[in-house]
Amino acid sequence: MRDIIEVEHLVKQFNGLLAINDVSFGVREGEVFGFLGPNGAGKTTTINILCTLLKPTSGRAMLNGFDVSRDQEDVRMSIGLVFQDPSLDIKLSAMQNLEFHAGVYNMPRSLSRPRIEQMLKMVDLWDRRKDTVHTFSGGMRRRLEIARGLLHHPRVLFLDEPTLGLDPQTRSYIWEHILDIRKQENVTVFLTTHYMDEATVADRIAVIDHGKIIALDTPAGLKRMVGGDIITLTTQAPDAAIEEIGLKHNIEAHRDAEGVSFEIENGEEFIPTLLSDFKSGLQSISLRRPTLDDVFMKLTGREIREEAGGVAVMKKHFGIHQTRMGGGRFH
Amino acid sequence: MRLSGSFFMPLLFLVVFGTGIGSSVIGGMGQGDLDYVTFLYPGIVAMVVLTNSVMASMSIVWDREFGFLKEVLVAPISRTAVAIGKALGGATLASCLGMVMLVFIPFAHVKPSAAGVFMMIGVMFVLALSLASLGLYVASRIRSMEAFGVVMQLLMFPLMFLSTTLFPADRLPSWLGTLIKFNPFTYGVDAMRQAILGSDVAAPYGIELFGYQMPIILDVVVVALFGLVMGILAVRSFHVQD
């Protein structure tokens, strides 16, 4: 199985800001590949380069055997996109948006008509095909964009934060569609997200932070990196607790949003040992299996959620477009 | 709503200024013997073309704002084709609206000739294409809707009024006379005037460049050259992927 995307030593600089700092990876044909990281980590910039919207500062990227700098039209023909910001023409109907797409991708009518019907039915929008997109909810628009992205049988479907801003029910609904589609269409899915639960769907995940890939593995492999179960306790004296755990059990605990946490294998068997002689005012204790949140914390010492929430809130408040960071005049 | 600014405003000018100022002007405009409203008419048609072709290109700013432009940019079509297509679309729209203005020929006391009308339509299209290219280039440099209003004031109004639309060039103080010669729209207006009124009638209101009276063909060449330069700059902008 060959790599359908190959990225070698990719670097992207914007006026002194190093957005992507020597990134290399490969995406295998047919897999769901996840790019996980906080906002500003370089995910959207990477996708923009792979989609030929941006030129790399240095390094090389190949998609479906074509160079993203030199064979741009061939690359574009091989990809479908669902952007982070919606890109439909809201004054047109669902049908018209898809017809426009078919036209611009050179699909003959004999092919596009049945395909449009198939795609609209697949995302459950066939009944609304004549309605103006203006009247669609956020989830419906996202589904329409997915239908559109796949219309021309691309080899790779790029999903840039596909469920950002949608409610949980719509999110799971959309993911059902995406996974169905992947099976039916035999397409490679390249996904960027800062949602942990979304990333778990991927076959392999690259964790990106400040423009560098800090880990690349299957979700299970990444979780193993954490080194076991996670025990979290709340106490009246967190610092004392950390010290006690360190001295008595030689374990390095740290403070986090929930209280005091540490990792240990076979956590369930350790709890009785811990509690038999715990002196720092225990209030509660819990145990859970590692999540990608923990992976990120382990790798960077930060929580991915507070990054995402804070930055996103700030951007909304100041009306800053995410895309402006992408540079270029037609961004 | 988009029409109101770019069609009814010029129309209003024609009717109100034409009648209003026209009643103040006794015995013909400037060194010729035209009524003001007749003198004004070609400039107003040019104004309709200007506002519509520039605004049509600027709709790209809307597309960018609402994200639709990305869909176009990521599609496997040549960027040059996208730019040219946009300019042609705007030019067609502006020309059609310009042609609607032909309805007001009787109001402006213009004596139409078939040749004149055809020539005017031709000038309309060249002017429209040229201005649509200008609009495209400007649109490629502004990134937000707020800049729209600024562009209107700093670009459109000087283009429209620092020209021979409202007044002839022959009796202007030298600073103003020189300024309007730097405006490509001036040549468009002059070409329009010569086309519909005939070169003889329009002669007293023509532009003199280095002591040489500009014939209609040269006016059109100036406009076309301007459009070409703008077009090249606009297409280059579309190709930027930094």
Q: What is the beta-strand fraction of chain B?
A: under 5%
**Please, what is the average pLDDT of chain A?**
84
- The Rg value of chain B, from CA coordinates, equals 18 Å
Going across the biggest sheet of chain B, name each strand in turn.
1-2
- In the CATH hierarchy, what is the class of the largest domain in chain A? Alpha Beta
Q: Report the β-strand fraction of chain A as a percent range.
A: 25-35%
Supply the CATH superfamily name of the largest domain in chain A: P-loop containing nucleotide triphosphate hydrolases
Q: Number of helix segments of chain B?
A: 10
- Spatial extent as radius of gyration of chain A: 23 Å
User: What spatial order of strands do you see in the largest sheet of chain A?
Assistant: 6-7-8-3-9-10
Describe the structure.
The complex is a heterodimer of chains A (331) and B (242). Chain A is of the alpha/beta class and 331 residues long. In chain A, 38% of the residues lie in helices and 26% in strands. Chain A contains 12 helices and 14 strands. In chain A, the strands form 3 sheets. A 6-stranded mixed beta sheet of chain A has the order 6-7-8-3-9-10, with helices on both faces. Chain A has a 4-stranded antiparallel beta sheet with strand order 2-1-4-5, covered by helices on one side. In chain A, strands 12-13-11-14 form a 4-stranded antiparallel beta sheet. The longest helix of chain A has 18 residues, at 168-185. With 242 residues, chain B is mainly α. Chain B has one domain (2-239). Helix content of chain B is 72%, strand content 2%. Chain B is built from 10 helices and 2 strands. Chain B has helices at 2-24, 36-65, 68-73, 79-100, 114-141, 146-161, 174-181, 184-197, 199-202, 216-239; strands at residues 208-209, 212-213. The mean pLDDT of chain B is 84.
